[in-house]
Amino acid sequence: MALMPVEEALARLLAAAQPRGDAPWPTERVDLWEAAGRVLAAPVLARRTTPGADVSAMDGYALRAVDAAEVPATLRLIGESAAGRPFPGRVEPGTTVRIFTGAVLPEGADAIVIQEDTRREGDLVTMVEAATAGRHIRRAGGDFATGEVLLAAGQRLRPRDLALAASADVAELRVARRPRVALLSTGDELVRPGAGAGAHQVILSNVYSVGGLARAAGAEVTDLGILPDDRTATEAGIRAALDAGFDIIVTTGGASVGDHDLVAPSLVAQGVDLEIHKIALRPGKPLMFGRLACDAGGTRVLGLPGNPVSAHVCALVFLVPLIRALQGLAVPAGLPLQPAVLGADIKANDLRMDFQRAEIIGRDNGLPIVRPLPVQDSSMLSVLARADLLLVRAPQSPAARAGEPCAILPLED
User: 294 pLDDT exceeds 70?
Assistant: First the structure.
């Protein structure tokens, strides 16, 4: 069986982000307090104009600019305007009102002189800096007006977006439901951290990296535990996950073709149509993807390799964009590669796209200078943790020298 190119596999996987039939991705209303990181499913319209009136941008004195066009000019103080407590009267010729930042500009005033440019003696205030009409005034509607679209649907909400919505008097937002992701680990050798693993055992780590990537992408993640290397148990675990109605089921381990690699045949036996199996990438060739054939909702199943670096790289390349696309975020058709400069000579590549763990060693005209780490073993998490990014080599790339351009893929942070 020929290996599927990474770009083709990614395109097929993203096509599966579209629900079957006409049913859109479900949405829900959430309080602003719960909306950070969620994907907006409907535009946010301002429910008020902000500022609601002309307000002061500084502490000082509100007046008619004509009364202090030439200085010094002494005016009579008739009151004050503070935020939330506007002056109830009108600024008449020869008068001024003490005003504070955020306070409503009194009727009749068209300028503000900041307090540093004044002298006060009782109820008389002398302006030593000439007033200019409109200066230090924030005009009504200067930020936004009632009915204005402030946030468009299809964007991930940042803390500053929530502040904007709040200032527009919007207390709830309609957002895409979080994709429900289930993690199933397989392997007789696996034990939980802290369980006192023997020399023949492997401590489970993939759920933490893959689950962390999924959560950061916006998913709700459930760890369904470890399945033994037993066909009956594997099929039962997969069946239970399928029946639970998860949007994505992610398996780790058992994705290859060895005697104990039971995930692919178990998926097929439970009605999953595997359209992707074996990808031309390193690390992660055994990756597989399919959908439950009889499920109108289209439960998606992503089978990741068991080696922890392979699982993490494949989750970054395939799972993260799938989760983002399900929520309605715009996802690039290909890999979101960035330019960089090689900091070391590298050998020619073979037929698989290579994702090398690499470090940044400097800058060249603003571009990072990157160097592959000396060990690229797909089981070594210490190397992955040390890496700054992934150096991506296209299939059949020739040897390259230090100083030549290259492509990189950022890691999750």
Answer: no
- Could you read off the pLDDT of 239-291 as tens digits, one per residue? 999 999 999 999 998 766 555 578 999 999 999 998 888 899 999 988 999 99
State whether residue 137 is helix, strand or coil.
strand
Q: What is the pLDDT of residues 344-381, one digit of tens each?
A: 999 999 999 999 999 999 999 999 999 999 999 999 99
Residue 221 to residue 211: CA distance in whole angstroms: 6
Q: Tokens 């992503």, residue?
A: 302
Side-chain half-sphere exposure of 15, counting CA atoms within 13 A: 11
* DSSP one-letter string for 269-283: HTTEEEEEE-BSEES
DSSP state letter for 317: I
- Distance spanning both ends of the chain, measured CA to CA: 36
Greatest Cα pair distance in the chain: 96
Please give the CATH number for the structural domain made up of 55-138: 2.170.190.11
What DSSP state is assigned to residue 179? P
Q: Which fold has domain 6-26+177-326?
A: Molybdenum Cofactor Biosythetic Enzyme; Chain A (3.40.980)
Domain spanning 28-50+142-176, CATH architecture: Alpha-Beta Complex (3.90)
The helix/strand/coil state of 310 is helix
pLDDT at 296 over 70: no
Contact 255, 224 (CB under 8 A): no
CA atoms within 13 A on the CB side of 222: 14
Round to whole Å and give the CA distance between 25 and 398: 43
pLDDT of 150 over the 90 cut: yes
